[in-house]
Amino acid sequence: MTVQDPTLTAVETPEADAYRAALEVIAAAEPTVADHIRGELDNQRSQLKLIASENYASPAVLLAMGNWFSDKYAEGTPGHRFYAGCEFVDKVETLAADHAKALFGADYAYVQPHSGIDANLVAFWSVLAQRVEAPFLTGHDAKHVNDLTEAEWEELRQSFGNQRMIGMSLDAGGHLTHGFRPNISGKLFDQRSYGVDRDTEMVDYDAVAALAREFKPLILVAGYSAHPRKINFATMREIADEVGATLMVDMAHFAGLVAGKVFTGDFDPLPNAHIVTSTTHKSLRGPRGGIVLSNQPELTEFIDKGCPMVLGGPLSHVMAAKAVAFAEARQPSFADYAQRVVDNAAALAEGIAKRGGRIVTGGTDNHLVLVDVRSFGLTGRQAETALESSGVIVNRNSIPFDPNGAWYTSGIRLGTPALTTIGMDTADMDDVAEILCSVLQNATPTTTGAGAPSLAKFDLSDEVCNTARTRSAALLAANPLYPQIGAL
Fold first, then answer.
1. Based on the domain organization, do 347 and 315 belong to the same domain?
2. Catalytic: 288?
3. Less CB within 10 Å around the terminal CB: N or C of the chain?
4. Residue 41 within a domain
């Protein structure tokens, strides 16, 4: 059985009552699952969560996922389903889309994607449908792909695979779904990458423009998973327009900063991109899922065909949770939250830098901090494991021009959305930096059996680990996770 923190007490709130009742029902069917759910909550309450792609959703968002919307098939779009009985699915999907449009200033929102990769696939195939398939059908006097002959269909299929994409390189902070070979996007598109300047580690827009002029992509992707700076989307749109490319922005990581109006003007993707994708968790604090937004009417009819083009049946229960999360993000308090996320990231970066850590790009404009742990004599894998053993949860990450590759890496990626959600401020971030650096400064790489420096193993004393855990516990006690739920 899971042992809860003995300092926690039971509380009498609607949220606590709901979760206690839910766990009782689950335990009656499979007690081990209920125990593991409690264990996950205990873990999250006892660790400093610094993974940039994670956050804490509200109890309302979490509860909205556990209901009978899960039982309904609803392929299609509101008012145009392939199944009967979708009255309330239509209403909740429309509500989620309306909240998303108002939140981001978008003319159109598609809330069905199950994840970030699904949202990106919907976007890619929507662009292919608009720019490749539709002109082909018109040229062959056909209304639908089923109207094509076998020879015509083969010609169209081949043309799908001959399209080009440009995205940010992985070591510069790009994402696998932006056209890289291990992902389906890399198997679909002929892809080239833009990186960052070797000296500044910033995006070189002149270099992006030169690559675009030479390669002439159908799609130019902007967005990142591990770049600690803003991207000028107005400049990216100018580049895309010059070469006739569709500008797609993947804002999965920084959607909360867009929603909270921290990123505005040239740094807001919505006024600048043809199509925008995002996850709904991360800095947006919603359920795990995806979304596609656009202000381009010529794209929306193709985006609406995400199911069955790419997606399976919509997850109606998750769309309900998205509606709740978007409603929460429309509250004035969310803008304050988004600004505090950025302030906390800057404070965390400063705290690590003054203790000897090298911060990639020299700082941060957003929610994440990328640390070159070679400044501590470690690889990313060593740093990640050492911190986990001390109750600090991060992920190892490549840095620009990383000599250690994508597995061992030379960096760790840190993010402040989760700790900001539970109430930590800039002073707390300095304490977090001290905890983190105390572990990294005392972790010592070992050698392999052949006498070479190990890229994975290290020595770290129990005393250092225990001290870090004690200091983390004090911070977490002052900023408890889900206090309205209490002990379960």
1. no
2. yes
3. N
4. no
